[in-house]
């Protein structure tokens, strides 16, 4: 499985994240695309029409070069929710915020939008605050489903990796190690140094 926080053709997470929908308002008329608005019987899209579009399409239409729509940030990335994360990110059930909270948020932080930079910094701060807790859960709580359900897809992957790594470490420690000996290269190096000292 490919995991990427930047566009990757083979990443399932990337495909799902860019399918997330954004509320968009058309600022220019668009001909023959009225079918995009299920509530309209018109063949065209009029100025001021609001439609939810997948991110990959909205991103293209709201660029400075095209400027066909204006994009509204989803509520889970707006100021009220950002303040909740800033207050204490560790108590938040990120799964309820979105399955691809970090991945989709990373895309939003690259949009040409006034909140993009703030979203990026909140994502980084949230991840830093929650990372230690996720690793603590992975090492000490087993595979409690209630804990896993509080995580988004990125954190779930980290949890699984941390839990598996801890299990491997425990298995290695329980198996014990044999006699630890110096590598042959180290032994030969010491012999050469002793030989040089004997010449003096």
Automatic annotation (TrEMBL):
Predominant location category? nucleus
Decide whether keyword Transmembrane helix is in the record: no
Task: Give the multimer and partner information.
Answer: Component of the GINS complex.
Its taxonomic placement starts with: Eukaryota, Metazoa, Ecdysozoa, Arthropoda, Hexapoda
Q: Which family does it belong to?
A: Belongs to the GINS3/PSF3 family.
Q: Where does the record place the GINS subunit domain? A: 77-173
User: One matching Pfam family, short form?
Assistant: Sld5
Q: Which GO terms describe its biological process?
A: mitotic DNA replication initiation
Entry keyword set = DNA replication, Nucleus
- Which segments does the entry list as coiled coil? none
Q: Which residue ranges does the record assign to the DNA replication complex GINS protein PSF3 N-terminal domain? A: 10-62
Protein task: Required for correct functioning of the GINS complex, a complex that plays an essential role in the initiation of DNA replication, and progression of DNA replication forks. GINS complex is a core component of CDC45-MCM-GINS (CMG) helicase, the molecular machine that unwinds template DNA during replication, and around which the replisome is built. The GINS complex plays an essential role in the initiation of DNA replication.
Which SUPFAM superfamilies does this one have?
Answer: GINS helical bundle-like, PriA/YqbF domain
GO cellular component term, pick one? GINS complex
Name the record gives this protein? DNA replication complex GINS protein PSF3
Localization, UniProt: Nucleus
